[in-house]
Amino acid sequence: MTTHTLTDSVDFADIKSAAARIAPHAQVTPVMRSRSINALVGAELLFKCENLQRVGAFKFRGACNAVWSLSDAQSKKGVVTHSSGNHGAALALAARTRGIPAHVIVPEGAVRSKVEAIETYGATLHRCAASTTAREEACERVRQQTGATLVHPYADPRVIAGQGTAAMELFAQTDPLDVLVAPVGGGGLISGCAIATAALAPGCKVIAAEPSGAADTFESMQKGERVGAFVPDTICDGLRTLVGEVNFRILRQHGVEVLTVDDDETIAAMRLIWLRMKIIVEPSSAIVLAAVIRHRQRFAGMRIGLILSGGNVDLDALPWLAQRPSIARPA
């Protein structure tokens, strides 16, 4: 069974292999449309509903591919990662499908409902401070103590390949697209999508949506080099991470454009999706629609694929209960 190191590149063959590997375990998620949102934007939007994936997020694709890529000898010692929520839950469930241990380092301040999901899926939790350094140090400690294989949340090539299956699946479900929009935090999803798009739809523009309060990818792309550590300030808890080195290289290679979005716009888009489409998405997911609404003149008349990355929300702390943003409504 093929294994990767973190320095390996990822190509479309890896994504095709990942699709076959995860097929017995992952959901084929639906593509949904909303006439009223199309009317608001003046474009045809096709929403790839990864909020309906197992564990409620696209993260299961990459975690599942990583777990089932392990040799039998590797798998016996389990897997370890650090995660604020969705990746941890995904790895815990993926490990359970193979009957192996999972260890998840959870930083302080993680969304309670996401931490509960990690526990529910059977992982052993290890707490740490909220900084990236603390997460990585704790992860390395557990790895050395247990012999578990590290499955990085976004920089592992097996994870990137697995996430790319979301775009591969979307292209198989739709007619040709002009634009594909996905969120960017660490960059696992958007880099996998960029690779799949280059292979399957080279005329389709790939755009990353990023919170303006955590716009390290935008700054990195502008400067042509990856910026250093930063302090994120955004409601999008899944997008607070510094973009990975390998992910940044892939984004540059494929000419991915980054659009930044303010939190109030993301909250308004989240509420609009709940209201019009009757599905639950989290802020890190709704940001793709917020980006399109913010730049609606640019996207007028286009066919746009939007990857709704997840739907894991703390129902006791909905963002519009704290503030009530004005919502753009169709005429």
Provide structural commentary:
This protein is α/β, with parallel strands linked by helices. It folds into two domains: 12-57 and 156-322, Rossmann fold, CATH 3.40.50.1100; 60-150, Rossmann fold. Helices cover 46% and strands 15% of the residues. It has a six-stranded mixed β-sheet with strand order 1-2-10-7-8-9, sandwiched between helices. Strand 7, helix 9 and strand 8 form a beta-alpha-beta unit. Helix 1 (12-22) crosses helix 8, helix 5 (86-98) runs parallel beside helix 6 and helix 9 (188-200) packs parallel to helix 11. The protein is globular. The N and C termini lie far apart (56 Å). Residues 1-7 have low confidence and may be disordered.
The name CATH uses for the topology of the largest domain is Rossmann fold
For the biggest sheet, the summary is: 6 strands, mixed
Can you tell me the overall shape?
globular
Looking at the overall shape, the CATH architecture of the largest domain is: 3-Layer(aba) Sandwich
Mean pLDDT over the full residue set: 92
Strand content: 5-15%
Order of helices and strands: HEHEHHEHEHEHEHEHEHHEHHHEH
How many beta-strand elements? 10
Low-confidence stretches: 1-7
Order of strands, main sheet, comes to 1-2-10-7-8-9
Q: What's the Cα radius of gyration?
A: 18 Å
Number of domains: 2
Distance between the termini: 56 Å
